[in-house]
Design a protein that fits this description.
This protein is mainly α. It is 67% helix and 1% strand. It contains 15 helices and two strands.
Length: 301
């Protein structure tokens, strides 16, 4: 059966109506995008302001006189920088700074030497018991540090290392479970064909590790270095336990000098805390690009 086609005259066809210009549609979509982005930036700004309130209070208190700490307004009526002089002279600031810098540099170097090696072996080298060892490392991450605190102290005490820097340095040269896990996730995402091509050219496993793998892991290594720097710089508990000589104190222990029988010297204490915070803040601003890239490439959400 042949279909019959009926033609409708052009004057009887329904009008499609006026069509909006392309520029109007673009403007509307641009306004929606701008409004959505403005709302997101407003929410992020409010959250950032909440987190910046303690830092703002610290800066303002460091610039206030003792009478204005609790009785003044939001901003000091008389700006003073004498608290910074008191912060430096109330303790051997340079000695404590040198001790802290020594611990930070050695711990960062130890972490960057040990953790990538273990992570690479767990991610790329086939050997018997690899999954069992990796599971054991993850299990140590779930163990609270307070559980092993007393056994470790007894161990270092029998070795005669209590009162020295060695209990704070040696463990970093044997790897940290969290950093091993972080780097292992990154190494596992690297393609194997690069290693295979280098092996065909006669490169050994160590040469592949140092010349091919590590250059690709700069962002992940920078992330680990920042984490270790902050952890060592701000550590208070372990130096308090192992350092019983005031000549070996770190800056975190030196802040306790502002607490005496008359109370707390809030102005010098906040000035010292501000000086204590600035290196960490500067490091994060300098390494922010590598830090964010390292977090993204290691697939840690």
């Amino acid at each position: 059966m042949k279909a019959i086609r009926v033609e409708v005259p052009a004057e009887q066809r329904p009008s499609p109506g006026p069509r909006e210009p392309a520029s109007t549609t673009t403007i509307r979509s641009g306004r929606k995008y701008l409004g959505r982005r403005s709302g997101q930036h407003l929410i992020v700004g409010l959250i950032s302001a909440v987190f910046l309130v303690p830092f703002f209070v610290m800066v303002v208190t460091a610039l206030e006189t003792p009478d204005e700490v609790f009785g003044g307004g939001i901003l000091p009526a008389h700006w003073t920088f004498s608290n910074f002089d008191s912060a430096v002279t109330a303790m051997p600031f340079l000695r404590y700074l040198g001790n802290t810098a020594l611990l930070v540099s050695l711990n960062v170097c130890g972490t960057l030497l040990s953790c990538p090696l273990v992570a690479y072996a767990l991610a790329k080298l086939p050997w018997l018991g690899r999954r069992l060892v990796f599971g054991s490392i993850l299990a140590t991450m779930m163990l609270p540090a307070q559980v092993t605190l007393i056994p470790l102290y007894l161990l270092w005490s029998r070795l005669g290392f209590v009162g020295t820097f060695w209990p704070l340095i040696i463990p970093q040269f044997f790897g940290t479970p969290f950093y091993i896990f972080l780097l292992r996730q990154f190494f596992a995402s690297l393609p194997n064909w690069l290693r295979d091509a280098a092996r065909i050219d006669g490169a050994s496993e160590l040469r592949i590790y140092y010349r091919i793998v590590l250059p690709q892991a700069r962002a992940a290594l920078a992330t680990v270095a920042v984490f270790q720097f902050v952890a060592t710089w701000t550590d208070f508990l372990l130096p308090l336990i192992y350092l019983n000589n005031s000549q070996n104190y770190t800056l975190s222990l030196g802040l306790y000098n502002f607490v005496n029988q008359q109370g707390v010297m809030w102005g010098p204490l906040m000035a010292a805390c501000l000086l204590f915070t600035l290196p960490v803040l500067g490091l994060f601003m300098f390494a922010q690009r590598y830090f964010v890239s390292g977090i993204a490439t290691t697939r840690v959400k």
